[in-house]
Design goal:
The protein is an alpha/beta fold. The chain is about 50% helix and about 5% strand.
Length: about 425
């Protein structure tokens, strides 16, 4: 690096967003994630001993995946290569591997390849890594916000340790923000800004476990104060600046499915207050109300069934209300339907019966018994279609006791109406 490159790097760092400037490069400033990176933890000892094997870092945005990779880059003697899966392809991977082989052959130097958002690589691209991870040409570090079980190919996953990073705790977030306010080199120390206790709590709530969101919020607030005489961030001004809390919720990601799962299970457990909370979480995060109400319609039959014959009607009515009224007013209809379904008696008798019937249906395409067939032509009558059929209304209680199953299946009992009578 020549003098001009160094000046450019210093200028870029100076103008970088606060979150990037404050990204720690030492463990002492890496707050949170003590379970996996605390003193004496296996991963930390492996990093400090420069004895890493391939690993996957899985966690929500702002939980420290890239920061941890940066610390590894500082600590290791291996050559560190970073690229993003969003703008790299198989050709880029092969070039990195070729250089890694040469580095190992001629200089006996290992290569650590850090792939941000590795879940964006398709199966073919991930397959490219596999032989070189196996033979030790590269040490792969993948970062992902998505569940590796679904997004990383099994052979690659089996050769990598998976570390789960949690959302940043409130205590750790407080340390991050306080350090930033005090730091004179990369933070806001030279600006001499102060923040009230209530405003700091508000900012921690805004961050919602995402360190980047917390630092971005702090930077927005400080930029607002630059024209002010008094450099104090208070709760009222902070609320006006931030306007809306940024909930951690990816409508296409795992948290999307986690929240809807919590919503359904709260209704199933007859917990209306919890169900309302998860409903509010989805509404506040911008979830499509059609997705919510579709699940409610399914729930009405799967978990309530005939224990309350009105449940399905309520859910379908909520679905119509969503289409007819739309948000924001339709959230009232969703709330009403949610509390009704949560408080309704529960039974899965119909759904369980269907699952049992499907098992028999999968045994083969057995013919319909002749007496249950319609004889719509003379040929069909000659072939005994409908012969011996007993018309239910000609019998007491409209019950004939004739068989309705293929001979190969025999008589079956799937549905027990008594199960629908429980409360």
């Amino acid at each position: 690096m020549d003098l001009f490159d160094k000046n450019l790097e210093d200028e870029l760092k100076k103008e970088a967003p606060l979150a990037d400037r404050m990204r720690p490069s030492v463990f002492e400033h890496f707050y949170g994630q003590d379970e996996i990176i605390g003193p004496k933890s296996p991963l930390r000892e492996a990093i400090e001993a420069d004895n890493l094997s391939s690993l996957i870092l899985w966690g929500p945005p702002g939980s420290g995946k890239t920061t941890l990779a940066r610390i590894i880059a500082e600590k290791t003697k291996a050559y560190f290569v970073k690229f993003s899966a969003t703008n790299s392809g198989v050709k880029d991977v092969r070039e990195v591997v070729q250089k890694a082989r040469e580095r190992l052959k001629f200089h006996k130097k290992r290569t650590i390849l850090f792939v941000d958002e590795i879940h964006r690589f398709n199966k073919r691209q991930q397959d490219t890594f596999l032989p070189y991870v196996e033979d030790g040409t590269i040490i792969l570090i993948g970062a992902t916000t998505e569940n590796p079980s679904f997004e990383i190919i099994s052979p690659l996953l089996s050769r990598s340790a998976v570390y789960v990073l949690r959302p940043i705790s409130r205590e750790a977030m407080k340390k991050i923000l306080t350090r930033t306010i005090m730091d004179k080199e990369n933070g806001l120390g030279s600006f001499d800004v102060k923040i009230t206790k209530n405003a700091l709590e508000k900012l921690i709530n805004f961050a919602d476990g995402d360190a980047r969101a917390g630092l971005n919020g702090l930077e927005i607030a400080v930029n607002f104060l630059r024209t002010k005489k008094e450099k104090i961030i208070n709760e009222k001004e902070l609320s006006e600046i931030l306007k809306k809390q940024a909930f951690r919720y990816d409508k296409k990601g795992e948290e999307h499915y986690n929240v809807i799962s919590a919503f359904i299970k709260s209704m199933r457990d007859s917990a209306p207050d919890a169900a309302l909370y998860w409903l509010a979480r989805m509404i506040e995060s911008g979830e499509n109300p059609r997705f919510i109400v579709r699940r409610m319609v399914v729930f009405a039959s799967e978990d309530i069934g005939n224990a309350d014959i009105n449940a399905l009607s309520v859910a379908v009515s909520a679905a119509r209300a969503v289409e007819f009224v739309g948000l924001p007013e339709a959230q009232i209809n969703l709330a009403q339907a949610t509390t009704y379904l949560a408080c309704a008696p529960k039974s899965n008798a119909s759904y369980s019966a269907l699952l049992e019937a499907k098992k028999d249906a999968q045994k083969g395409s057995f013919g319909v018994p002749l007496h249950l067939r319609n004889a719509v032509t003379n040929l069909m009558k000659d072939l005994d279609y409908g012969k011996g059929y007993k018309y239910a209304h000609d019998f007491p209680d409209a019950k004939t006791h004739q068989t309705h199953f293929p001979e190969q299946i025999g008589e079956k009992k799937y549905y027990d109406p008594e199960k629908d009578k429980k409360t």
